Amino acid sequence: MYKEVDARGLNCPLPVIHTKKALEAIDKGKVTTIVDNEIAKENVSKLAKSLDFKVDIQENQGNYYIDIFKDHGINEMPTMDIQCDSSPKKDLVILISKDRLGEGSEELGKVLMKGYIYTLTEVMPFPKTILFLNGGVNLVVEGSEVIEHLRTLEANGVEILSCGTCLDYFKVKGKLMVGGVSNMYTIVEKLNNAKNTIKL
């Protein structure tokens, strides 16, 4: 049997997911996945190799045609490192210590912070972790205008952590709406191990 997967323009990890579904849909035969970037090519190739299938790759006008030859069944998805972005900023940790951005007008600062967190949901790659401490914890509790944006980030794999001491200090621990509660040891560890950090 033969199946073709046109994964051009699809965001990671969709080319891998669609390729695996196509492989599962046939007993034996060939699946050709077409992708338009190097990262997708590498990820689909890793999938095929991890399943012990023969792979042949051809490039034509900026597109990669990945032929995968299936000659045995698939039990389960192997553990593999799917790299979705080559940018070193994928290991970015953001520390937010107040509920507004910049100095001067508090009202304007809150508008800017809301805009900043929304923009994080629209720009790739996503940060690895966002840490909230001191007044920043007001952004993760009931009444915050950015909860849905933070939930979107969390749904996309961004780790959201808030300082437990800070939540206790402001008496809002029971109002936490997104992410988990952390401690200073973990916060320091996350910052020390990050390749890139931003403090707001």
From TrEMBL:
InterPro entries associated with the record: DsrEFH-like, Se_metab_YedF, Sulphur_relay_DsrE/F-like, TusA-like, TusA-like_sf
CDD domains to which the protein is assigned, alphabetical: SirA_like_N
Pfam family name, one: TusA
UPF0033 domain segment(s): 5-29
NCBIfam families: selenium_YedF
Stated family: Belongs to the sulfur carrier protein TusA family.
Protein name: Selenium metabolism protein YedF
Lineage of source species: Bacteria, Bacillati, Bacillota, Clostridia, Peptostreptococcales
